[in-house]
Specification:
- The protein is about 35% helix and about 25% strand.
- The longest helix is centred in the last third of the chain and has 16 residues.
- α3 runs parallel beside α6.
- The mean pLDDT is about 95.
- A six-stranded mixed beta sheet has the order 6-7-8-3-9-10, sandwiched between helices.
- The protein has a domain of about 130 residues: P-loop containing nucleotide triphosphate hydrolases (Rossmann fold, 3-Layer(aba) Sandwich), CATH 3.40.50.
- The protein has about 230 residues and is α/β, with parallel strands linked by helices.
- The structure holds adenosine-5'-diphosphate (ADP) and magnesium ion (MG).
- Adenosine-5'-diphosphate binds next to β2 and α1.
């Protein structure tokens, strides 16, 4: 579905992604792990065209997307749930969702009613303005809004960051439902256990490159990789 081949990305003079290659196949969840500041968000921004790579290739459904503006990349069917919650605080839940709606020509697209079935708390608060929602509800709204664009590929950038454990469980319940429905996902996540519980394949980044990749079961057993690159078990 998407393949990044040796991408190199800078912020001004700062050379951040120093040759990143990874792939997400149809109907799978691929997780991208790594400590803070290693380049995970920059990878997501490179895919969306927000910080385009200066070198390398990103092929999405057979089309080169490096060089396309972000709105065109979004229209091709890539949805982003950005790090930190981004909603319109002066708009109601329903208005936030309607703003995003785009069917993408899907046979069974996400609609307001369908989204409210998966997120009953948002249905209860449908008339509330964004700024009256709890952090967890805002995260649900961010996810729901991305679903309203009916993306073929969803990019999650640390969806559980800063959320209470019960809300993290709720976020991962939704990710599991999406997986069961065949949604393709690239999941950047700090919660190692949760990431391993949903992913089909895992990549680890360090200092702007991919330093490890395997299935979750192999990574779970690899104590040295986990302690070196993730700080898991420290
Ligand atoms: N807008 C920016 N300008 C300059 N450097 C940045 C900018 N955003 C991030 N960086 C740097 O790029 C590196 C990678 O950041 P990021 O991709 O956000 O890491 P991660 O998501 O893995 O925590 C870090 O060293 C960070 O300081
Ligand atoms: Mg980040």
């Amino acid at each position: 579905m998407i393949e990044l081949k040796d991408i190199h990305t800078w912020y001004g003079d700062s050379y951040i992604l120093q040759g990143v290659s990874l792939a997400v196949n149809d109907a799978t969840i691929v997780t991208l792990l790594g400590r803070n500041g290693m380049g995970k968000t920059t990878t997501v921004r490179s895919i969306m065209g927000l910080t385009p790579p200066r070198k390398g290739s990103i092929v999405y459904n057979g089309q080169e997307i490096v060089g396309l503006p972000p709105f065109k990349i979004a229209r091709l069917g890539i949805g982003l749930i950005p790090q930190g919650r981004m909603i319109f605080s002066s708009l109601s839940v329903t208005e936030n969702l309607k703003m995003a709606a785009r069917t993408g020509g899907k046979p069974d697209p996400w609609t307001l009613e369908k989204v409210f079935t998966v997120f009953p708390k948002l249905a209860e608060r449908r008339k509330n303005k964004g700024n009256l929602l709890s952090g967890g509800e805002q995260q649900m709204l961010t996810i729901a809004r991305a679903l309203m664009t009916n993306p073929d590929l969803l990019l999650f950038d640390e969806p559980s960051e800063g959320l209470a454990p019960v809300v993290v469980d709720e976020v991962f319940r939704v990710i599991r439902e999406l997986k069961a429905a065949g949604q393709s996902i690239l999941l950047v996540e700090q919660d190692f256990g949760m990431a391993m519980s949903v992913a089909d394949y895992a990549y680890i980044m360090s200092k702007g490159t991919i330093v490890y990749e395997s299935t979750p079961d192999k990574l779970i057993d690899n104590e040295s990789v986990k302690s070196t690159y993730l700080g898991v078990g420290e």
